[in-house]
Amino acid sequence: MAVTRQRAPWEGLVDSARGEQVVAETRFGARPARAVGLPTDLHPALADALARSGVDALYSHQADAWEAAHDGHVIVTTGTASGKSLAFNLPVLDTLARDTRARAIYLYPTKALAQDQARKLSALRAPFLRPAIYDGDTPGGERRAIRARSNLILSNPDMLNVGVLPHHRQWGDVLANLAWIVVDEAHVYRGVFGSHVANVLRRLRRLARAYGTAPRFVLASATIANPEELAERLIGERCRLVDRDGAPASERKVVMWNPPLVNEATGARASVLGEAAGILARLVEDGVRTICFMRSRRGVELVHRFTRLRLEDAGHADLAERIAPYRAGYTASQRREIERRLAEGDLLAVVATNALELGIDVGELDAAVCVTFPGTVASLRQMWGRAGRRRTGLAMYVAGDDALDQFFCRHPDKFLDRPVERAILDHESESIHLPHLAAAAFELPLSAEDRDILGPRWEGYAERLVRLGDLRERGGRYLPRGEGFPAGRIALRSASIDAFSVVDERSGEVIGTVEAERAHSTVHPGAVYMHLGQAYEVQELDLRGRSALVRQFSGDWYTQPKKETETYVEEVRAQRMLGTVELNFGMVSVSEEVIAFQKKRVADHEVLDLLPVDLPEQRFATQALWYVLPESMFRHEFPLEALQGSLHAAEHSQIAVLPLIAMCDRWDIGGLSTAFHHQTGRPTIFIYDGHPGGVGISRAGFDAFETLVEDAARLILECPCRTGCPSCVQSPKCGNLNEPLNKAGAIELLRRVQEA
């Protein structure tokens, strides 16, 4: 008798869009489990706790990690929901069961992940286990007891940096008995954040050695191209790789969805925000439990708002109450409440930034929708892995009109078959490494013994800190100079340590926070700020008081800042000639000043007004590639205005495709193009790391420059628009509001660079 396959509730949505929005679809992921028995040498108390929680066997990678961890440091890289937590818990908990004095530290990139893991550890009810969370939310009265009693401390790199390492004398017993350090979600530690964390982990190893211990590391990561290299760069030691995933996987239906073209001449497509809201509303109406990922906080708020309106207009006010937004900038209690409602099934859908990409247990989900490319294939697969864990799930990618999104829609095979990227970090990036050396000297004087942990270049950097007045040298040892502890001046996740409070004018309540380096662009006077689905208009930005005063707002527009940017070449570190084109890599100073902002209608992005803003400029030094073009290349064919538009369009296209080479996001990259640069004296294009100090993004572009030019040229050539559109040369982050741009000139410019 034939068996009728039961249709998934989301299949009607996919069927209705074939032939227009659905660009490609495939199925992947079905895999049986590879199970093995529990190790026979597990401590009996741990074996009993596992049995009580229903664990009577292991997946093969969990057994591999158990074996590997006995020999040294380990990195486990397997799929979402594959049981990586048990892989690192086994060796750690076994040690804690055998040695009553042993301690372990677990590090998570977010507080929510630490709380999720703490709940699971407590559920084991193991008599030898005394877990506790130690982070910024831990009451002061409980902290001493945790240091004295807990044998498994869950924290985050930020707390380790400012709350543990500078106060290591209070942590003497923990450090003297530290057997294990677990670093979960290791793939998150890349770029600026990863470079900081690599320094923090070296400082932790250094203090542990001073207290007589050499703890073993277990790192857990989503799939990336260079897990062993990433692990070694993070901790400064070789790690053994465990990547044979033995967990079962349900089938996933993967769908690429492109909003319909609404204007062939301009290349304009239907708003991706409206398209995402329509998809999410349909899924909610069909009872599909969904997580919808957006790249920006504003996008989260707008899609949540639009989806609610669609459901209410369709007579589903009850369903509108069962969706919620989730992003950074909410208070801890707001985030915990959303997580609880999602895990318990009270919410049918959540619209989130990548804050929920990581391994928080949010219960059973049927669909994961990623709106626009998240920057890396590794992140995309993490997001998709949130759905369909025990039955066939829907993994959807909704393309925006961004150049890279449309490139993938024209080449779906390059998207669906694309391998995961390499994670980039540079712990010796000067603006990152120097403050950590100062912090390390505060913890213990620097000396020749630190070479094996801090690296061979530590002394040269220490001497620079002496010249800067941050350290003093005495008999080959480097000690701190000045008051206060340097770690308090280090911001691990951003370019600055401080943040701006966003204050509701009516109630006086702090409703959110914005990082200082984003404040000029996002909460300048007149800016529209979104929070929990409500729009606010910024009334005042207090630079000295670090606050933005906002008022509730019901207009139908959003804002986009206009910036003036300048670059100054500080140091050339590498140079090569490509025929007559001079290609450089080095350090540059970047100055940015927000001078105005556009009001744009939400529905169709039409510009409504351009208003001035008076804010001081911001400066930072970073890594950059820049190439200088000979005047002979453009002498006759390119009038000045056409040349500037051609350079600008070429710069945008190269920034758009650089994430294909480096594991980064378009928003991590900045650029400047000019027909005459005051230092080079010729037409020049700069592409720079958008973070102070840089972390190697532009270096990757320098090393693969020929590929960068080829990909950019193909991106523009394949776009069917006539004069340039968001799918080829327009940029959503352009500080000049995409003026001037010359698509035809950019094609000719890139062709000549290739020929050169």
Explain the overall architecture:
It is built from 25 helices and 31 strands. By secondary structure, it is an alpha/beta fold. A 7-stranded mixed β-sheet has the order 1-11-18-17-14-16-15, with helices on both faces. Strands 6-7-5-8-9-4-10 form a 7-stranded parallel β-sheet, with helices on both faces. Strands 26, 27, 28, 29, 30 and 31 form a 6-stranded antiparallel β-sheet that branches. β17, α15 and β18 form a beta-alpha-beta unit. It is globular, with a radius of gyration of 26 Å. The mean pLDDT is 90.
Q: What are the SSEs and their pairings?
A:
Blueprint lengths: L10 H6 L5 E7 L6 E3 L6 H9 L4 E3 H10 L4 E4 L6 H15 L4 E5 L3 H13 L7 E3 L6 H10 L2 E4 L1 H8 L7 H5 L1 E6 L7 H20 L5 E6 L5 H9 L4 E3 L9 E6 L3 E3 L4 E2 L2 H14 L4 E4 L3 H17 L3 H4 L2 E4 L5 H12 L5 E4 L14 E5 L5 H8 L8 E6 L4 H8 L1 H5 L13 H14 L7 H4 L3 H11 L2 E4 L2 E4 L18 E6 L5 E6 H7 L5 E4 L2 E9 L4 E6 L4 E22 L2 E21 L5 E6 L5 E11 L11 H18 L11 E6 L9 E6 L7 H7 L1 H14 L24 H13 L1
Parallel strand pairs: 4-9, 4-10, 5-7, 5-8, 6-7, 8-9, 11-18, 14-16, 14-17, 15-16, 17-18, 21-25
Antiparallel strand pairs: 1-11, 2-3, 12-13, 19-20, 21-22, 23-24, 24-25, 26-27, 27-28, 27-29, 29-31, 30-31
Instruction: Name the shape in a single word.
Output: globular
Structural class: alpha/beta
Cα(first) to Cα(last) distance is: 68 Å
- Uncertain regions spanning at least 5 consecutive residues: none
Considering the protein shown, what is the CATH homologous superfamily of the largest domain?
P-loop containing nucleotide triphosphate hydrolases
CATH topology of the largest domain, which one? Rossmann fold
Radius of gyration: 26 Å
Average pLDDT, all residues: 90
Q: How many DSSP E strands?
A: 31
User: For this structure, what is the CATH class of the largest domain?
Assistant: Alpha Beta
The order of strands across the largest sheet is 1-11-18-17-14-16-15
